[in-house]
């Protein structure tokens, strides 16, 4: 069957571990090379990736494009608004047509269900480049960053502070599969989905507040309080006021690495001092999107 990469929980722990190891290996193998240097084995030679964006993107767009070049392939990028998709052509018909023209499709969609529908009608692998429900590519880049700074993620403790959103959901999915503990501090109204929490099983706990979550943690991670598609901006700013990651909070986790998928809203969920400070690994994290996604693409193309 097709190797879709839609949610982490659909993959086996062995496949996920192999993807992360491949990301480490590929990153190490090209240290110092120009960004366009093609890896010697070029596992995406003769392959084309289509990217479809229903929402804005900087990192996902540029990292997938760079990743395809480095793997020896090519990519084609369009926003849904530019496509007939934006004029009512169905998801399924779009999937059938793109399947005849490219070897894999990455899609960033407003509704998670649309990615599932796309995959069901596609005859090539489909990659989730973020939906309202999850962001699996991001978590592979994050775990790559954690392992660079802290060694194997298995047995580590990660603290998630703030909104129980799409990125949080993918962290929850990852916890039992990679064997780390996830402590979530989140205001009641913005808790993660119960289905996601069930997938996290005993690796995931909801704790009482940010201080309890970060104490003794190896990693502290947060994300915007207002995701793409959220409309209740004022209510959110109020609900999350006590969840800002600042220097005072980080004093409780002096050895922790700080992560943020970016874009950051400086002065809201994270202070300048933390984002630009010695514990922050956010620029490595952004770069690691390329390395992690090369491993995902290699897996989708059956080269792993
Ligand atoms: N972190 C992330 O996915 O960034 P973009 O929205 O810029 O792709
Ligand atoms: N949670 C954010 C992540 C952006 C990369 C959003 O969905 O907007």
Automatic annotation (TrEMBL):
Primary localization class, coarse: cytoplasm
EC number(s) reported in the record: 2.1.3.3
Pathway membership: Amino-acid biosynthesis; L-arginine biosynthesis; L-arginine from L-ornithine and carbamoyl phosphate: step 1/3
InterPro entries xref list: Asp/Orn_carbamoyltranf_P-bd (IPR006132), Asp/Orn_carbamoylTrfase (IPR006130), Asp/Orn_carbamoylTrfase_sf (IPR036901), Asp_carbamoyltransf_Asp/Orn-bd (IPR006131), Orn/put_carbamltrans (IPR002292), OTCase_ArgI (IPR024904)
Reaction catalysed by this enzyme: carbamoyl phosphate + L-ornithine = L-citrulline + phosphate + H(+)
Binding site for carbamoyl phosphate: 57-60, 84, 108, 135-138, 261-262, 289
Domain Aspartate/ornithine carbamoyltransferase carbamoyl-P binding: 3-148
Binding site for L-ornithine: 166, 223, 227-228
GO MF annotation: an example: ornithine carbamoyltransferase activity
Annotated compartments: Cytoplasm
Domain Aspartate/ornithine carbamoyltransferase Asp/Orn-binding: 154-300
Keywords: Cytoplasm, Transferase
Family indicated by similarity: Belongs to the aspartate/ornithine carbamoyltransferase superfamily. OTCase family.
Function in brief: Reversibly catalyzes the transfer of the carbamoyl group from carbamoyl phosphate (CP) to the N(epsilon) atom of ornithine (ORN) to produce L-citrulline.
Alphabetical list of HAMAP family matching this protein: OTCase
Protein name: Ornithine carbamoyltransferase
UniProt organism field: Peiella sedimenti
